[in-house]
What we know:
This protein is an alpha/beta fold. 36% of the residues lie in helices and 25% in strands. It has a six-stranded mixed β-sheet with strand order 6-7-8-3-9-10, sandwiched between helices. The longest helix has 16 residues, at 127-142. Bound molecules: adenosine-5'-diphosphate (ADP) and magnesium ion. Residues 46-47, 89 line the site of magnesium ion. Residues 8-255 form the ABC transporter domain. It is found in: Cell membrane. This is Branched-chain amino acid ABC transporter ATP-binding protein/permease.
Amino acid sequence: DGINGKLLELKNISMHFGGLKAIDDVEIEVLGGTVHGIIGPNGSGKSTTVNVLSGVYMPTGGNLLWKGKDITKYAPHGIAQEGITRTFQNLQLFEDMSVLQNVMVGFHRHFKTGFLKNLLYLGQVSKEERYYAQKAYDLLRIVGLEERAHEKASDLPYGEQRLVEIARGLALKPDLLILDEPAAGASPKEIEKIMDVIQRLKNAGLSIILVEHHMDIVMNVCDYITVLDFGKKICEGTPETIQNDPRVIEAYLGG
Ligand code: ADP
Ligand code: MG
């Protein structure tokens, strides 16, 4: 396992909902220390794949291996404990809380009971809270948002809110970070910032799965890309390979 080894393996993974094959017999190998893109048109099965990887759905077929260990039947908390963290396609921030508080929520598993309540209702600030506030600041610095720490999360532009979500994900100290369309709804400038952050996290040694609908966004930052269409893997390879593959071009033009 670890850098350059197989970190995560999807072995013939299927997720069928009745007759609908949201993903069908998909094989993916994610190597440690890489950014692995999963792309495909709308409805191709990207989010379903993420839901299977994060334990939201138990696949109807196939196996999921994490560092060689079978985690197919793990529930979301079990997957999280293994060091796999995901963000959601739709923002999951607490709108009325500050940016800093939203990141602090990411540390909740370390908290004593009552901590979250204090955060929400601004009770006394304990030593513990100051400790995690400092750690949350450090994460905000990584995503370039330390100056926004005390603003209300919902007052930030959409692209920066996505970065807050990424910072909160980092609080769990993941070995693998799964980002489901982190650039959705962001402006071109914000997208650039988000891709910058992903590049920086990769340089720091984090393994990342980057799910994107738009092909062009992932090309600079991904080491390897899997392309889905109608729940099937239609092609995989380096960004250069993908960009020139006629099946990919057709999937996007036809989709
Ligand atoms: P993507 O993220 O690539 O846009 P999804 O994984 O969200 O695609 O969806 C793939 C297909 O699976 C779609 O046809 C979608 O309607 C279907 N699907 C996703 N989740 C469910 C579900 N819980 N029940 C039934 N169908 C679903
Ligand atoms: Mg999706």
